Structure formats: C-alpha cells, structure tokens
Amino acid sequence: MAYLTQPDYVKYICSCGQLKPITSLYFCRHCLKIRCGFCICHEVDSHYCANCLENMPSSEARLKKNRCSSCFDCPSCFHTLSTRATLAQPRQAAQDAAAGGDTKVENKQPKKMYYLSCFNCRWTSRDVGIPDQPVASGGWPERTNPFTTRMNQLLDYYKAIAQQEKQEKLERERKKFAIRGKYITLTDKTGLTGAMARNIAGLPSSDGGSSSAIANFVASQASEDVDELPEDIYTKEVNLKQITSMAQRLASPEWQPATVSRLHPLAKLLSVKRSQRCRACDHNLTKPEYNPGSIKFKIELLAYYHVPEVKVISFETIKPGEKSALLIKLTNPTGHEMQVRLLQPEDLPQPEEREEPKSIEKSLEKSLNLEKEPLPETVPDKPSGVRVPASSRVCPPSMTLSLPQRDDAAEYDDDAHHDTDDVILWRKSNKIALRLEVVTESTVASGVPANALLALEYSYRNTVPPPPTAGGTLAGTTPAPRDHTLYTTVLLDLGVVSG
Amino acid sequence: MAHNNIKILPGATVCEDCTLEGDITIGGGTVIHPRVTIIAEGGPIIIAEYCIIEEYSTIIHKKSDKQENPPKPLFIGAHNVFEVGCRLEAPCGHIGESNVFECRSFVGVDIKIGSGCVIGAACHLTAPQTLIDNTVIWGSEHHIREALEKQPSQLLQLDFLSKVMPNYHRLRKPNVHKRQPSRQSQDSSPKP
Ligand SMILES: [Zn+2]
Ligand SMILES: [Zn+2]
Ligand SMILES: [Zn+2]
Ligand SMILES: [Zn+2]
Prior knowledge:
The complex is a heterodimer.
Chain A: H1 2-5, E1 10-13, E2 19-20, E3 25-28, E4 33-36, E5 40-48, E6 55-56, H2 58-63, E7 67-73, E8 82-88, H3 91-99, H4 104-107, E9 111-117, H5 148-177, H6 186-190, H7 194-200, H8 208-215, H9 246-251, E10 266-269, E11 271-278, E12 284-288, E13 297-300, E14 309-315, E15 323-331, E16 338-343, H10 360-366, E17 392-395, E18 400-403, E19 417-418, E20 424-428, E21 431-440, E22 449-461, H11 471-474, E23 483-496
Parallel strand pairs in A: 17-22
Antiparallel strand pairs in A: 1-2, 1-23, 3-4, 5-6, 5-11, 7-10, 8-9, 11-12, 12-13, 14-15, 15-21, 16-18, 16-22, 17-21, 19-20, 20-21, 22-23
Helix pairs in contact in A: 5-8
Chain B: E1 5-8, E2 13-15, E3 19-26, E4 31-32, E5 37-47, E6 52-53, E7 58-61, E8 74-76, E9 81-82, E10 87-90, E11 93-95, E12 100-101, E13 106-107, E14 111-113, E15 118-119, E16 124-125, E17 129-131, E18 135-138, E19 143-146, H1 155-168, E20 171-172, H2 183-188
Parallel strand pairs in B: 1-3, 2-4, 3-5, 4-6, 5-7, 5-8, 6-9, 7-10, 8-11, 9-12, 10-13, 12-15, 13-16, 14-17, 15-18
Antiparallel strand pairs in B: 2-20, 18-19
The complex binds zinc ion (4 copies).
One zinc ion (ZN) binds at residues 14-16, 18, 35-36, 38-39 of chain A.
C-alpha cells in the first residue's frame, strides 16, 4: 500500500539505467537482470471490454475500431453508462385500445423500456432525445459519420501505401539475398525496383489494385473559405451549460458536438491485456491469463519476488559535513536463504560487455524502434559504474548478512528478535533492520535533496533449469551455476539537506 | 437554546438515534436514518413529505446576524435525498423538491437551491449562488450541467426503508395527528 500512496523513497537502478521503485521492476530469471517497463517489449495479448469483459481477437477489435459494441461511456463525464429500466405505458396502447384492435391485450401490460444513464453526472440518453429501447443491450441508434467516404478513401490509401512498402521491402530483401544469376537485369544495375521502373516507363504497375488507390487519391486542400460567424456572436449571452467542453468535443472527433444537446453515447474503448518480454533473451517476464475476468498471471517475474527489498525506516536529518544515522529494513522475498552484503556503489564489479539484444531485428520490430532512440534522462553510465549524483555516502558494514527464506506463517509471530549488535537492530523471519551511518560532504549546499546510493550484493538461487542451448550465449560455455551472486544499486531518498 | 419542539407527522420514519434540536417538523413519508443531525437554531426547519435523510447527514438552520423576528423557517421540499455524510447549512429560505445531495457534499449559507438539482459527491458549494432547476454539479472540478428532467423519485426505496427500518431501529413515534401542524399540536408535543 505504501508503494501506491507514498512517494518512492527507494529507487532501484534498472539494468538499462532507469531509476524505478521495486514495484515497477521485473526480474528476468534467464538473464538474471532487473528489467523495467522501458527496456522490455510490450506485446498485446488480447483485447477486451473493461465493462462487459467480452474479449475478442485483434482482427475483430480492429474491425470494430477498438470499441465495444454493447457498452457506452458518458459523453458528458466519460464515466461508463449504465442501462436503466423503466416501466412505460406505451403511448400507442391507448390509441390501439380506442381503436379496439386485437393488439389491445398485449399492450395492456406496461412495457419495460431501457435508457442509458450516468451515475456520476446523471446524464441520460433521454437528455438528448434518444428514444428508450425495448431491449436491454444493443439497438442504440448509431449516428453516421458525415465523413465516411473520405475516411474510407484515406483508409484505402494508407492500406495501399502499407502494402506497397511491404512489397518493396520484400523485393529489397530478395535482391539482397538472392544468389546472383548469370544475367544482370536492368533493375540490378540501376538499383530500380520493378515497380519503379514500370512507373518511370509510364506502364501500369503489376499490382493494379493498390496503386490505383494511390494514383486516384486526392490530398486534402486547405481552404480559406469558411462560414461567416453568426451576427450575434458577440452580443448573444453565453450559456456555458449549453456548450460542450473541449474534452467532450474531442471525445467524438467525427461530430465534435458544440452544444450539449448533440452529445451522443460513446462506444466504450477496448482495453488490452499485455504480456512483457525480455528483450535480451526473448523470454516472457509477465503473461496474463487470457480470461479478462482474471487478474492473475501465468508468468509473473516481478523484481518484488526476486530482489531483496530495501525500505527506509527512519533517518536523522542530513547536514553538510556531518554523520547521520539511517535505519533501513531488508527483506528477502525468495524461498531460499539469501546472503546479502552492503557495498559502496563503486565497489561493484564492472559489468561484462554491453549486452546486445539477441535478436535485435525482432525486438526492434516489436518495440516500435524504441532502441534506436536515445535514452531519456537516466543514469548516464551502466549500473555498476554509476554516477548518480548523490549528496551523501552510506558507510556499509563489512559483514555478510544472512536472510532466511520467506515464511508466510512467520508473519503471525510478532516478537522481533532484538540484536545487541551495533549494526543489526532486529531480525524477524526474512526481514532484518540495520542501523547505518550516512556521511555528507561539507560542500553540499543546504536545501538540495538529500540522497545516498547503496549497493547490494546478494546471493540468488535460480530454480529455472538451465536451457539446453542458451548456456553458450549467456554465461560462457560452462553450464550456469544454480546459485548466483547478483548486484543491484538503490538510491535512497533522505529528504532535504538542512542548513 | 430554545426548547425542542419536534413534530413528526404520521407516516414518517424517524430513528431515535439522531440529534434533533429546535423547532422541527417532519413530513409524512419521510425517512430519517440513524445518526442524522438536524439543528434548527436560527429558526424552524420544515421537512416536507417523502424525503430521505441518510446516516451522518447534517442539516443546520444557522443563526444569522440579520435575523428576522419571528425567524423565517427553512423549508425543505418534498422528495429530497440527503445522502450519507452530506451537510446543508442554510440561514433561511427554501430548498425545492427532488434534489439530491450526494455523499459528503456541502452546501453553505447563501445558496439558493431550486428543484431537481444534484450536488455531486464531495462537492462543496460555499460561494453565494443560485442553482436554477435541474442543475447537476459533479466531480472534483465542480462541473455544471443542466439536466432535462428532474431526478426520478425514490418512492420504491422509501417504501422499502419504511418497511425495514422498524425491524432494526428504535423509532420516534409520530406525535401530530393532523395533516398540518397547528398551534394546538405544538402545545401538546411531549418530545424531549
Ligand atoms: Zn532475459
Ligand atoms: Zn530498464
Ligand atoms: Zn463492453
Ligand atoms: Zn456522466
């Protein structure tokens, strides 16, 4: 809970250099590295509606424009609309009765009619004159998009372009890898693709369908002719209750209603279930269960379950040139005993050469070429040679701490084992509280944020059987040992340097 | 503090475990949940028929400096719903009918409320203003819109509450047997 409601006092340095709290980090059991949302592949597993939990394959979702066909959002406040039932005496019933028709018996009963209503802002479909429906779901009148033809033109055009680009890429690939025959063709010599050559020669291209869409496409033209503003634009009193907000207009870009009487229920946007994949080894880090009603994961390699958790209990105010006490708590979340040693960040061994994603092309495709872009502001170096500016230094004790494995039953014992040690404050099950000393340089200006880096060396028992082939690429030719010594660095937020 | 003068009309369901101070009239069909506070310090409070006043709601008729003599009553129209934890402070005046005061909403003094208005959950109205009929206020940014029609009445809920409440709570008995409170009934009201 503290992780949800409080600022992140302890941040871990991901293997990509980003600073993140432990709850938003992953741990790849195959690379034995911490990963974060920035340095992994995000894949869409399935589309579903968050309201009715209907799930659908991506092709169907695309066809439905990623919207649910039976659920709606409020056009006024964007909350989900609920269907409400009313008993209505159909108006024709009276007329029919007067006419003495044989529908009299059926229509005597009040009919159940349904309308949409928002529990948040109390908007209802009746507010804008949408007639009540006789069935609970579906059947709501759909407004036609005034720009349907143009939209379809654009869609066709972009589809054609996508197809053409795909074709060209295939051709390029073929050319690159084709074993050169005896005959050098014109296109080989000039670097022209067949399509381009045909285009230059003015010949109809081979794939007629797509390029006709491209050829016939007319680009949009900006026009200076716009409707005059109404005469009373400056004199008419503005009633803000009648005018839609910007957010309300942009929520339905096709119509962009200017007045609230033109608001129309918005088909609910679909949500996606994502799975996450390590970019270096292509293994899944998380994989949700397919059923949208389930919040469980089939694979859930979160750092929270594998990396020792550091929490700040309390600390003395950081003052320039002085020593302050710092109390932290370490927790071993794994099912195996863990040996932990606290180090200075510069004591960490240099990492092995920069890791390259195994299948860079594939990863690139998947992550929308994220890798090509420069990293945002992060730790400029690799984690072990960290140069995070920290105001203070932690003096780590030169002892190895042993943390027992997690024991859920021990949660209920509340007698913490108090140590007389200078460093160890208490032990309790898989947790240990330490008293450390923080030294602050006298040159640190008061008022700046106080923080300190702390490096951890911890033993980790890998329960994954080593894959038969991956051993060669990751850990040299020797089979990977099942017990590993891993390192991580955390940045502790210690408030503000006081004067 | 003037002595309490609570008039409960027949058909009203008023729990014993609530604070009623001053001159208060509660209309028939109205349901007052436990732990409700109604304080008529600046003048009488008249609550019309078929209102629901939920737990921890507070309705105060505040004393004001320019008090008239005799003090004007605070009249709360029919079919108003005061949801859990809401607070209404009005020096005098008139609350229309079919309004909804959602959970933990606050309506301060100098606010005139028409009919069919909704004060959204946790919305605080403090500046002097007049809410015209069918105004809906919602959200932390106090968005305002105008509904087309009044909020649907809660008759089913009222019916249910008036049947269920006596099974679980001690109730105050109606002490007025005429339709309209009159001089005579005021004299004979025995409530503490
Ligand atoms: Zn990996
Ligand atoms: Zn990362
Ligand atoms: Zn849905
Ligand atoms: Zn709404």
